[in-house]
Design brief:
Length: 288
């Protein structure tokens, strides 16, 4: 698979919002995501079809999707699902191009996150591939705990490599390695992307990296130098994983990804005025 000459930036308002305790009004979500649609991102991770008890912040995803203005944008939409029922609901929306599923190489985290074992999760991935193929959607599988494990379970790069190969064999064409707890190092990032991109050329690999303010660049540069061209981010690094021990660990700040792309002249057409507007709207949307 030939790599693109630009960074494919996936903005993740869903990830930024989902852990916020106070419910963000639906109208505010719609306004914010509509602003993001004007920026020129490749994809927006815009919502999820999961249990409202598990993630109450996302209970209005269907209403949000139905009120987005897709008339003047090339940006595609992604929604997260955790089971077949959620997938069947998500594929009914023509404006959704991608379904995302969090597959963990940690048994404990898989149970906590989706109430499934890894074996059950593997079977679900095959089901999700079939559902996506039937409805002309694409499945994105996030490999949670892709760079470390906080539960004292066995973790090494071979485990990540083995599961990447198995998931690719199931028909998954996009795999995003997720730094769930912010423990990735440039060395691990470089090894995993360098090895996986070489060994599984039919798969598009992405980086969903969590970072502290002073380590973002070394992580992005390591992934980029190893062939990764797909990066997830969230404005101001909002969101991240609540299990991270350091409060400063959050999502990769989108503004940093954009500056990196401009520095290396990798920019896809991005409307910086629209980004500034969306950035300001983010400050009004999220509690600081």
């Amino acid at each position: 698979m030939a790599t693109t000459e630009y960074l494919k930036i996936i903005e993740c308002p869903r990830d930024a919002m989902q852990g916020i305790h106070d419910f963000i009004p639906t109208s505010k979500k719609i306004s914010y995501i509509n602003a993001l649609l004007q920026v020129g991102f490749d994809t927006l991770d815009a919502g999820s079809f999961v249990s409202s008890k598990a993630i109450p912040q996302m209970r209005d995803t269907a209403e949000v999707l139905n009120n987005l203005d897709m008339s003047d944008t090339d940006t595609k939409l992604l929604t997260i699902v955790a089971n077949g029922r959620g997938a069947e609901e998500a594929v009914q929306f023509d404006q959704v191009s991608y379904l995302g599923y969090p597959f963990s190489v940690s048994e404990i985290f898989q149970q906590r996150n989706t109430n499934k074992s890894i074996k059950e999760s593997e079977a679900l991935v095959s089901e999700l591939v079939e559902i996506c193929d039937k409805h002309n959607k694409e499945l994105v599988v996030y490999i949670s705990m892709g760079f470390g494990n906080p539960y004292n379970e066995e973790w090494n790069v071979n485990i990540v490599e083995d599961w990447s190969s198995k998931l690719a064999s199931s028909g998954v064409k996009i795999l995003s390695l997720s730094d769930t707890i912010g423990t990735s190092t440039p060395q691990t990032i470089e090894y995993l992307f360098g090895t996986l991109i070489k060994n599984l050329p039919q798969v598009e690999f992405g980086a969903h990296l969590h970072t502290t303010p002073d380590t973002w660049r070394e992580k992005v540069l390591s992934a980029y130098n190893s062939g990764c061209r797909r990066f997830d981010g969230a404005i101001k690094g909002f969101g991240g994983c609540p299990m991270a021990a350091d409060d400063l660990v959050g999502n990769m700040p989108t503004e940093k990804l954009l500056s990196f792309a401009q520095e290396l002249k990798l920019g896809k057409e991005i409307n910086m005025l629209a980004f500034e507007s969306a950035y300001n709207r983010a400050l009004q949307t999220f509690p600081i």
